[in-house]
Amino acid sequence: MIPAAEELHPLSAFLRPWLTAGTPEISRLNAIARERGLVTGGGAALRFVAPPADAEGYEERVFLTGEIATRPDNRHDLFNALIWLAFPLTKAVLNRRHVVALREARTQAGAARGPLRDALTQFDECGVVVAGSCSELWSALCAHRWREVFVERREELLRTTRFLVFGHASHDSLAAPFVGLCGKALFVAVDDAWLNLPDPAALAELDARLAALFETRSFSPRDWQPLPLLGIPGATADNERPDYYDDRRQFRPARTMRSGSSPGNR
């Protein structure tokens, strides 16, 4: 079931402007994309279309034709479309890097999919942007010091940090959240000026910065930090209780990370 604007999970609330008039039809999504001049990774005008019957790969079709397969009345695909509207620059870069990596692999006999494409797919599906002015809090999250961040330093976290769910599969899951729902987090350092911007301006600036980050850096799945989504302040009323963070089904001890694995701290 596709939630109405007022029924969106708090972590999906920034997508509400595109749902205030009800669930948008594909024609409405296309009108918005056309009005804003949105393009995909190959520079083709972005268009949401019914899934084609041919076997051409998803990313290559998006890159070459601008066509994004979107099933009607499908929550997962709707959230994918909404993330294209919210983060058009970043989504275009992800698409371009997918296709470039795919074409490079084809020139090498027996080449596997590779860690970059795996990382791009994981972030596209489950990514979370942690935009903050306090890198110490990010370091504590990477170390799984959940109580320190979410309980002891909660006020500081609320003042200095914003969590924006990028992954459309995560938004789909947030429509019916479950214990253990986890995202793949990336830190983007921001300043107080960004934290005080109106939401549309903050989102546009973050999109530009995120696109530049994905344009210039290589990633592997090990670069993403696990983040229990229901631990984010405001994600559920239950996490107002300190003992909420004692549940090891969600808030697990740190695993060993490779040195320098946090992209936002490089």
Protein described:
By secondary structure, the chain is of the alpha/beta class. The model is unreliable at 257-261 (pLDDT under 50). The protein is built from 11 helices and 6 strands. The protein folds into 2 domains: 5-118, no CATH class; 119-265, no CATH class. It has helices at residues 26-36, 58-65, 75-86, 88-106, 115-126, 135-142, 146-152, 154-160, 168-174, 192-195, 199-216; strands spanning 47-49, 67-69, 127-132, 161-165, 182-189, 225-228. The longest helix has 19 residues, at 88-106.
Rounded mean pLDDT is 92
Count of DSSP strands: 6
> How many structural domains in the coordinates?
2
Query: What percentage of residues falls in helices of 4 or more residues?
Result: 40-55%
Segments where pLDDT lies below 50 for 5+ residues?
A: 257-261
Oligomer: single chain
Ends apart, CA distance between termini: 41 Å
Percent of residues in β-strands: 5-15%
Shape: globular
Spatial extent as radius of gyration: 19 Å
- Helix/strand structural class: alpha/beta
- Helix tally equals 11
Order of strands, main sheet, comes to 4-3-5-6
Largest sheet: 4 strands, mixed
What is the H/E order?
A: HEHEHHHEHHHEHEHHE
How is this fold's topology laid out?
Elements: H1 26-36, E1 47-49, H2 58-65, E2 67-69, H3 75-86, H4 88-106, H5 115-126, E3 127-132, H6 135-142, H7 146-152, H8 154-160, E4 161-165, H9 168-174, E5 182-189, H10 192-195, H11 199-216, E6 225-228
Parallel strand pairs: 1-2, 3-5
Antiparallel strand pairs: 3-4, 5-6
Helix pairs in contact: 2-4, 3-4, 3-9, 4-5, 4-11
